[in-house]
Design brief:
5 helices; single chain; 126 residues; alpha/beta; TIM Barrel
């Protein structure tokens, strides 16, 4: 299970990017965070073309499939959406990992039991 942003575990941080300039200003160990895909697909293509790891916030299976096809490293969503997206990601062997945005460490156990790839704590986003 992937755990990003828990205080006990060293991990990369996700940095919001709303333009190519924002993407260029990220640090080497940052992961670009795009949202929503409908508004950021051009930035996703830029990241894909330049081998920049990025995550994208999605709320539908269709957006998750498109995000994976655009080379996203992470698909970030709410738990209910992840329950629909994760089986599709497994069936089609997505390269992207499905992460549920969480605020409470107690959610780790529940997300793990549901078979979701991982969690992203809000504290890891800036």
């Amino acid at each position: 299970m992937i755990i990003v942003g828990h205080p006990w575990i060293k991990s990369s941080r996700f940095r919001y990017a709303f333009s190519q300039e924002d993407i260029k200003q990220t640090q080497a160990d940052d992961i670009v965070l795009l949202e929503p895909l409908a508004d950021s697909h051009g930035h996703a293509r830029y990241c894909q073309a330049n081998h920049i790891p990025y995550g994208v916030v999605v709320s539908t299976v269709e957006d998750a499939v498109l995000a994976n096809a655009l080379g996203a490293s992470y698909i970030i969503c709410e738990e209910d959406d992840a329950l629909e997206i994760q089986p599709v990601a497994q069936a089609y062997l997505f390269d992207a990992r499905v992460l549920v945005l969480v605020y409470d460490p107690k959610k780790i156990s529940k997300i793990a039991k549901e078979g979701i790839d991982g969690v992203l704590f809000a504290e890891a986003i800036y």
